Structures
1.
Amino acid sequence: MFDCGKIAIIGGGSWATAIAKIVVAHTHHIGWYMRRNDRIEDFKNLQHNPAYLTGVHFNINEIFFSSDLNEIVQNYDTLVFVTPSPYLKNHLNKLRARISDKFIVTAIKGIVPDENLVCSEYFHQVYDVPYANLACIGGPSHAEEVALDRLTYLTIGCADTAKAQAFAEVLKSNSIKTKTSSDVLGIEYGSVLKNVYAIAAGICSGLKYGDNFQAVLISNALQEMNRFLQVVCAAEDQEYSFTVDSAYMGDLLVTGYSHFSRNRTFGTMIGKGYSVKSAQIEMEMIAEGYFGTKCMTEINRRMHVNMPILDAVHNILYERIAPQVEIKLLTDSFR
Ligand SMILES: NC(=O)C1=CN([C@@H]2O[C@H](COP(=O)(O)OP(=O)(O)OC[C@H]3O[C@@H](n4cnc5c(N)ncnc54)[C@H](OP(=O)(O)O)[C@@H]3O)[C@@H](O)[C@H]2O)C=CC1
Ligand SMILES: O=C(CO)COP(=O)(O)O
């Protein structure tokens, strides 16, 4: 069986903290890159992350912290990237060490802005990491619930099944169930799109559309996701059949409906009349679907998939079309 070796977490936010909790319970040692030394010092003193999931306590002796990404990369075999997607490039720009022979796992549910590449494509194209060394973590998984040990199902995608299985074993516990998949691109694109659709759900909620319509919106979102993945991820002449799995539909549902969802919260503010800027400032957290909307719209200019919900969210966020006008047009297009 493949051995993940020494595992390091890259990123210091809530999902990074939840994944660190899961991994260190299994391995009893992790490396952990955080960008700020003051955060690391506070973490060591408090024995928990000072800013995110503060109720999750760690045995500090089991963690090697560093704000030097190169030090972590040189000393660890499996690197789990959990930074919000808009910051990934900046972190990676600090890299001097080679990462092409590392096992790279991305838990990022977003796309690299300006590049219009999902994370596995970015690591492959820019850092020469072979696809067999690239994995992703998908599935409905709000960090706040993982922190509370609430039952959560994660899907580990990797072209190399043995590697996916090995990492799935590392994450498995009484409260975490895992399965594997070879559909890395599909999981990553699905994760980007569900953020866009959660923004749409939030906008409709802010506009006071009710549960009946939300259900129709989410059904249409799933069909839209499937149309896109059919074009981008299905083998020739094959029907794309994964979309109903929990890493796709499950994550769409949890992000579209959960009050923990930042994308839905952001959309709700937009529906209530906030400008994009004021919603972003008030939230203090990042709704990656905002960036995902722009990138997916640009990608779809080449793909020509029928994606009315993506188009509507793009028009609202980037073309300043009034949400009530755009959503009314969308309602007329649904059956
Ligand atoms: N939260 C969740 O439930 C889940 C999140 N994910 C995904 O995990 C990824 C990480 O999200 P999450 O952990 O929630 O993020 P958080 O919002 O919890 O954390 C934000 C992180 O970004 C850092 N940061 C803030 N500003 C900057 C900046 N200008 N440059 C570089 N870094 C910055 C923060 O560092 P600092 O503290 O130093 O300011 C912090 O580590 C995302 O792709 C998300 O989609 C996936 C599943 C669940
Ligand atoms: O992906 C998530 C849950 O699975 C988190 O979604 P938000 O970023 O909208 O909170």
2.
Amino acid sequence: MSEPPAVSVDGLVMRYADKVAVDELSLTVERHTITAVLGPNGAGKTTTLETCEGYRKPHRGTVRVLGLDPVADRRDLHPRIGVMLQGGGAWSGVRAMEMLRHVAKLHAHPLDVDMLAERVGLGDCGRTPYRRLSGGQQQRLGLALALVGRPEVVFVDEPTAGMDPQARRTTWALLQELRGDGVTVVLTTHYMEEAERLADQIHIIDHGRLVASGSPLDLTRGGSVTTIRLVVTRPFPPGSPASLRTALGEAIEVVQLDELSLLVTGPADASTLAKVSRWCEDNGVLPESLTLGQRNLEDVFLELTGRELAP
Ligand SMILES: Nc1ncnc2c1ncn2[C@@H]1O[C@H](COP(=O)(O)OP(=O)(O)OP(=O)(O)O)[C@@H](O)[C@H]1O
């Protein structure tokens, strides 16, 4: 029999009082991958992760991690997973290395804590109390705490939030190294670049629902699709997206980003650019800029939800 996937979520519904935070969500995370759950603030990413980690019980649907029920099989599952919580999850007065040593002792075969501290870049702040660590250092400690028990699956919630660009790159390299060692990494992020660079598989969620899944390449369709961004000097006349779409033809999508900009997506080329320019002239619209580019995940998200991904 083949081994179960790292994570399988099937028809998950999660509610806070009357609010539906996760709405019939189904997704699979294959082993030995980096999988990103991507979505804007409030999309339901943390709630989904916390359910996989066994901190919340599904209101409906099922969740399995390494084939186990995170709540009912908690004792068997917990030694096999690592969890990096949003906001660190350490006591405020404890020193970074004390905390790491303490957690290491709870595991049967922990990693060497000094090596791990060095690797995540905790280096010279090991004696600093948790509350005095910078946001980025708290994140690094959180990551070390998640990894010290040699987990098979590691859940990391917004691993690079609050990190400077260099620390972010170090963290990306570390997560890639983990995948190389056979660990499955499940991360949430609202950084499109993070998902695009790191993930083998991306699940985009919005309002608790899955809106798209695939590899970064699948989702951006191999770069054969281009975008045109049109920014204008005065608000568009009413009905502009529909009128522009009619002018450009069937295969082209037009999304209004805000009152002064539109995004055109599809098999666009120089002739499409010329048509957009002509449409502007015919409709008394004065372009401030008109740029042709490759479609990226941010554009995919915009098309799917009509909203920007970045907070
Ligand atoms: N404890 C709670 N009580 C009530 N509502 C909650 C609670 N936790 C989350 N929510 C709501 O559920 C929805 C999903 O929240 P969740 O934190 O899962 O989203 P998220 O995608 O992780 O967002 P973020 O990127 O901001 O962390 C949001 O509308 C949020 O306000």
